[in-house]
Structure prediction request, 1027 residues.
Amino acid sequence: MTDPDRLRQVRELFDRAMDLEPPARREYLERATTYPTDVRLEVGDLITRAERTEAPFVPLGGSADLIGQRLGAYHVVRLAGVGGMGAVYEAVRADDQYQKRVAIKVVQSGLGSDLAMARFRQERQILATLEHKNIATLLDGGMTPDGRPFLVMEFVEGQPITTWCDARALSVADRLRLFRQVCGAVQHAHRNLVTHRDLKPGNILVTAEGTVKLLDFGIAKLTGPESDADGLPLTRGGARTFTPEYASPEQIRGDALTTVSDVYSLGVVLFELLAGRRPHTGRGSALVDIERAVLEDPVPRPSAVVTDEAARRRGERGAERLRRRLHGELDNVILTAAKAEIDGRYASVERLSDDIRRYLDGLPVAAQRGWAGYRAAKFLKRNRGVAAVSALLLVALIGGIVSTLAQARRAEAAQSRAERVNGFLRSLLSSVKPTTGGRDVPISEVLDSAARRVLSELGTDPATGAELETVIGESYRALGRYEDAERHFVTALGHRRRISGDASVSAAIGWSNLGGVLLAKGEIDRADSAYARALAIYRPGAGPSDSLLASLTESQGSIANARGRSADAERFHREALALRKTSLGDRADMVAFSMNNVAVALGNQNRWAEAESLHRAAVGILRSNHPEPNVLVADAEDALATALDIQGKVALAESAYVRVLELRRAVTGVAHPQYSWTLFNYAMFTLAQGNYTKAAALSRSVLAQRGKGLPESHPAIAASLQTLGRALDKDGDHVGGERALRESMALRKRYLPADSWLVASSEGVLADHYILVRDCSAAESLALSADRIMVAALGNDHPNTQTNLRRLVALYETWGRPEGAAQFRARLKPAATE
Amino acid sequence: MADSAQPDPTVANLLTQAGRGDSEALSRLLDVVYAELRSIAAAQMRGERPDHTLQPTALVHEAYVRLVGSGSRSLGDRSHFVNAASRVMRRVLIDHARARNAAKRSGNLRVTLDEGIAGGVEPVVDVLSLDNALNRLAAVEPRWAQVVELRFFGGLEITEVAALLEISTATVKRDWQFARAWLARELGDGLFG
Prediction:
């Protein structure tokens, strides 16, 4: 017989046997004598395999004494597995025409102690109260002929959730969605005062149709007060009834368990689902190693343990991709669920599930609190359609939501309120036609009408009103309309104090917002006192890892900086940096921001070498967090370029400038004002290097944006005209130089107050031009005017004033008027080096 | 930016045409998918994998994302794509196995198969043995091998396979039951639990 013919026979006999019920199959094979013996033997083997592979459990041994017997209405077919509490058999209902398959769980003879018996009966009662599509249903119960209790449960044909997901190379998002089914089932059990106590992939099966089924409430125990009275002791030192890899520290210690212990186990399962391994693998696989690891080792960040293999199983191209997907929010969700300390965990499975939903919806997760930029990124991600609207405005909008959300973090109403605010914002934004450029008149018009609508439409709910006032205030602030912003912040603050009290966190946030806009207005003293109010309220209750405390501390740094107290600024920024490291870890974006602030404060103290190394560290963090072109990286590199430039590290500075320009071109395009500013800085750098042609060309690139990316009033236009003029002058084109410098000065006089030091600076630079072309009287009147403005605006000792004084001295010396030179030389500071 | 490449619009068209029964389109689709799977597999095998195994379902998924995108094309499209990919997957795997043997690297190329048979245990099989076994199944009834390909390589569900091959789910179930048991027997005990 040829191979195909024989195989056809095998299949035929296989089909006939399989059409029968399991118990009848072997008997049929015995009688199927028309088939060759070897075919019958092979089919017998195939049937055994087919039956085995249908089972959800790997048989680990156990008694076979019940196979073929009848238990109640059920015919026991085979041993399907052995669990912690007993053997599990597959059976069919003998008198049922549908031949329903069931799982029968019988207490193992060896475990037939009174304790096991009592708990087994308890399990039966518990399961009887649970009816949920994702929990294996308890159908029946009874006693075996020899007096062992058994439970009859829905037969679940499925795979452990981890295996199921891996086999399908399910994406992270799909895994999360599936996991929320698990949460739903556990939530249901918790609502019925049942904790599972042994949640692990082996107890969380998924059917071929993708339905989650929770098995084995074998060690569950009623958590309600009734059961406390006759609560059964957990096995300590006796038979272990949980799996240590997934057990919470309190379970390993033998402490009282609550629903939050299930949250921990769910966190570990989620860890494994997303990262591809369990969190505690470091010490070894012995029971004692695992227990010690659970008790003593912190759960690592899931993103830190991923492998290429795990990535591929999740449809990601490599470990790095998966790492980036998990890094941040999902890390935080899992670490919050699987926190060793009960207090730090999600308070309920619902919260965990909710945070996952928020992640899936692109909303900020509760596990990661605080940081406005982060939330803005989320907002942009889920509203790509309106992303062309000024990102700055969006940052402010979301910043408003953040601070108000932080306030209401614990309140149940917060979410629906946040959703209302979000919905309002979305409707607001969708009515705006995206336009290019930084400041959109239509947006501010929409805001104005929104501001009017707040009171009429939402005025009934003061909490929502307070949030919207805040959001609108933030938006005005982003648009530079500080007076309007201040007005809305003041109103919001009033709401906050009325609703939550003068000493509430909400009020502290209100003061903080007000401080921010006052600082932006340049009202340093009022800003300082607003921040002081915020801190006085907030600091006593704040933990060492509080993000609002970090940002308040940072504001103090900004105030110190604005007052020219760079050493104080440094101290505050270092404090903020430490707070952020504690709360966010060493590599968060916000940590890099804080480093940048410290570096700027150091630079202001002329400690450029220290500044440079911090700038570098910040760039390093941001680059690894954002391998693709990113505006944060560009900003950090920009600051680094300046530090290098000032220290005279010419080659390094130049390559940094080039990198920044590339990044900005990729992220925002050449029309963005920031691109122009970097071009301008680079032009100044090349001018100082004596590369006049290049400096002129770079300046002209900025000027090409005039009337396009940049309005004529934009300061980069006047500044670039000045650089262009100086470069042309140096290059010998005095006519072109004069034209550019005059235009620069004219623009500044048109758009700035007459007493602005920038106007004076233009006059001084134009004076240099006239000195160069030997028009001493023209130079004199310009330099004298500049001196008057600078002394008034900056004081005699300011470096800019001093530079102009040296200009006057040089002018009079060139001119042959030593008495003039002497007059201004007398005002030079002796130590002045510039 | 540096994100994944744009889905190739021609693949989408080919899928639609192939879905309508255009055999010319199907053959072109097979070529495209084959090339893509090869390049993904090659990239994976270049990696530092110590065990030299490939997971076909992950390959197919990645090819799908690369060529079609993860957007909202209909389920039918995905089935057609997986159908195409599963059909060429054996060629891809064999090419790799041969290339490996030619390069005289230790061990045969192995694949992990989807639809893990024993709870939690992932079967790992030798590619050339698997190919040989599938050929023997196909010699009797091509559909048997096809069901295995779609399940093992494509990760399709019973119902999806049934819809794609236009046969009943009962038939697919039985084909699958049989093929799985038979392959387990042919490819060696232990592998399939």
